[in-house]
Amino acid sequence: MKTALITGITGQDGAYLAQLLLSKGYAVHGLLRRSASADVIGARLSFLGILQDVQMHDANLTDITSLIRVIEAVRPDEVYNLGAQSFVKTSWQQPILTGTVSGLGAVNVLEAIRIIAPKTRFYQASTSEMYGLIQEPRQSEKTPFYPRSPYAAAKLYAHWMTVNYRESFGLHASSGILFNHESPLRGIEFVTRKITDGVARIKLGLADKLLLGNLDAKRDWGHARDYVEAMWLMLQQETPDDYVVATGRTTSVRDFCELAFSHVGLKAADHIAMDERYLRPAEVEVLLGNADKAKAKLGWEATTTLEQLVVEMVEADLKRLSR
Ligand code: NDP
Ligand code: GDR
After folding, report:
1. Which residue ranges traverse the bilayer (predicted)?
2. pTM of the entire structure?
3. Domain total for the chain?
């Protein structure tokens, strides 16, 4: 039986990855950072019905001693580093925390592995945000990076440190450069979930308006359930490497709204409005991924369409709010 350790197991991707690994027979362990509101921590794992099937360890990415303790205790075959301060807008308010958790945190994990268990395979959650001000219309592993936020700069540091530990110490360390991926478990502050939650509230008569920022921003949106499969595939390869994971289709926030409102028979234009509070100091206007390498080498392709994703998210929010 293989053993996996997931940092960020309580987040969106951590929950779906834990579910996938359990289905493959893994013993699944995760980091749990202590919170005064302990009752809400396992909400996503509970949603998937797997909270009791994973083993949690008290640790924090910013405290390498806690990581050393956990890796010594668990002796994982695979470590997936998904933990991060992952909300781009917050990274301007908390740039140092974001750098510490999302940048240095990855190096803490790499160091703990290098010192204790250098045969452990490592996955780093890199991001399309590293392309920022895009240098090519379709971004692949060869496209130069141009980060546009403290979050993206922190992630780029972690990305290059992963490459560096692979090349310097021979660690089996891979990065997935994942484009935006969503699901009913997406945090409510991210735009897709904010929209599907807003649509459900308006449909149920609980709200009338949905205030958003830049409606013209375009993203390559996929389903988190599909994307965690790509993470696992990367660690099953003999040679570690970096891969773009994306759908190859880009859609504006405005068009995402159209899809979500039309699913419940409403018109987006009647309900959405722009609010400057949701604009960012620097914007990533458009992202579009080229995942040809993942298809050729991992045999991975996105399977959920945007239309299916939107329907699943709106339906889940209607169900949640109707309870
Ligand atoms: P979430 O924000 O849903 O989850 C983040 C996780 O990190 C949570 O489990 C959170 O724990 C944990 N965490 C935060 N700070 C710390 C810390 N100091 N120590 C330990 N754990 C911590 O993110 P997603 O699931 O959406 O994303 C997973 C990863 O992939 C992130 O690294 C993200 O930056 C990256 N990514 C995400 C993409 C996406 O579209 N979703 C695209 C590309 C990359 P807690 O529950 O306690 O808050
Ligand atoms: P992003 O996701 O920044 O791409 O990062 P988010 O959903 O926050 O924003 C996407 C785009 O929508 C625009 N937007 C709004 N965004 C939010 N959150 N709220 C609004 O009201 C709103 N209105 C318009 C944004 O300006 C932006 O252009 C996500 C995170 O999961 C990162 O951790 C991950 O690395 C990247 O995806 C890939």
Report:
1. none
2. 0.98
3. 2
